[in-house]
Every structure is written in structure tokens, then in C-alpha cells.
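Contributing new records

If you add data, match the layout below exactly. Sequence lines come first and carry their own label; structure lines follow with theirs. Keep one chain per record. Anything else will be rejected by the validation script.
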Amino acid sequence: MKPLLTVSTIVLAMVTASGAIRLPAAMKADVRRIVHFSAVDGKGAHVTDLTAADLTVKEGGKDRAINAVEPATMPMQLSILVDDGGTGGFLGALSQLIQATFGRAEFTIRVLSPQAIKVVDFTRDADDLRAALGRIGPRGRIQVDTEQIIAGVGDAAKELRQLRARRASIIALTASGEKTQSDLADEALNALKDSGASLSVIYVTGVELGRVLGDGPRHSGGMIEQVTGNTALGPAIAKLTDNLRNQYALTYTVPDGVKPSDRFALSTTRRDVKLLAPTRIPAR
């Protein structure tokens, strides 16, 4: 009597030489994708009652069926870049950001010196975060290289992709800006798109922004805020953290047999509602 084939035997028989599993047509299914976004009204207040009926999703220019729109509850992964020239000027803002999102996120922090140096790896531990903040006070003047923040964004995005972070944001606090014409820009923007992370930027008036810090927030669904000095940092951080804490998780369907696209468009029929949503997402 021939032995019965087990499920594992059948699966092993479908493994190709490259190690990929080739599923029979009957086992294929639609692909569900999740995108995080937020919404504000004409006064800047967060809109928290959107439903699928209020929204339209297009991927690759084609309408996609919305499965669900609900408040995002998944823990966040926040990758923070601090570019203060060694002054410690962002210490209070960073403390405010961590306090406002503590318990809802894990954090990694990089300080530009002038290249981005990680001072704490992803953690939710309060003692680790306090120790990291202790390294971000005044450190003496640092020679500024405005191309290093571009590399820092790229490195943060690559790390988040490798970790398969599911609700990720890169936050750049900069008093120096970025090199407006850089050979690193395309690589950093592609890494940002492939990570699925949003990029939010808070920058000091007078610095120059290029394609990464200037366009990255719009492509990724993040925020960009200009501040005139330390007194304006508090409201900017509050706006940023409110945005992160009031995100939606939108789930939609890519039909079976359709190749996912990296072009994404989210719109609403609700008047006076602005959506902060990505226009480029991972094509997977």
C-alpha cells in the first residue's frame, strides 16, 4: 500500500531549484495591502471618523477595492535623525517626541557627527532612551556635511525594510538642511519607497532642502514643518506626534494575477479634508 502524501510532502514537491514555492492556480489568491495615512480638516484638526465609503484607492492608476479603514493600533517603529551641528538644540524636542509616543512605539536614534551615528538601537526601554538623550546635549561644534543626512535617511530606510517594519516612520530634525544636488538622492528616495516608511522633516528657517528632505515627505505620506527657533519646536513636535497617533490603517485588495504597483493615490469625497498619504509604496 502506497503511503499517503502529507501536506508537507506536497509543498516540498512544489519547491523550485531556486527555493521559491510555485503555487498551483487553485491556491492563488488576491493580495491584501496595508497603507497608513492621516487626515486633517481645514483648521488642521485631525479627522477621526473616515470610512471606506469616503475614500477611493488607485494603485498603478487602477481602482482597488477597499477592505477596511480603521484607527491604526499597531506599534510604531520610529527612526529619528538628529542634525543639530553639535549644539544640542533639538534635545528638548526629541524628549517631547519620545514622551508623546512612549508606549506606542520603539525608537532608534542617529546623530549626525557629521555622518549619522546610531546612539540607540530599536528599543522601548526608558533607561536606554534616557541614556541616548544624554548623548544628544551640547557636544561642541561639528563640521557640517549636508550630504550626510541624505545618506542617513537611506540607511534608516534600508534598516526598516530589512526589519520588515509594518508601521514605520523616519523623522529628521535638521538645522543644516541637505545638499540640493546630490548623487545619493535617488538611492535614498528609492530606499524610502521600498521601506514603506513615511518621512517627516522639521527644519530650521533658512536652510536648504533638496529632493530627499523636500520631496520625500510628500512621496511617503509624512509631514514637513519649518521652525524659526527653539520656541517654535514645541508646536511642531506636537503637530507631528498628533499626526502619528491619529493614523488610519487602510487595507485594500490587489486582484489575483495583477502585479502590484509602486504608484498609489488616495482621495476622499469629504469636503475640506486633507489626506496625508503616500504616493509611492513598495511594489510588493
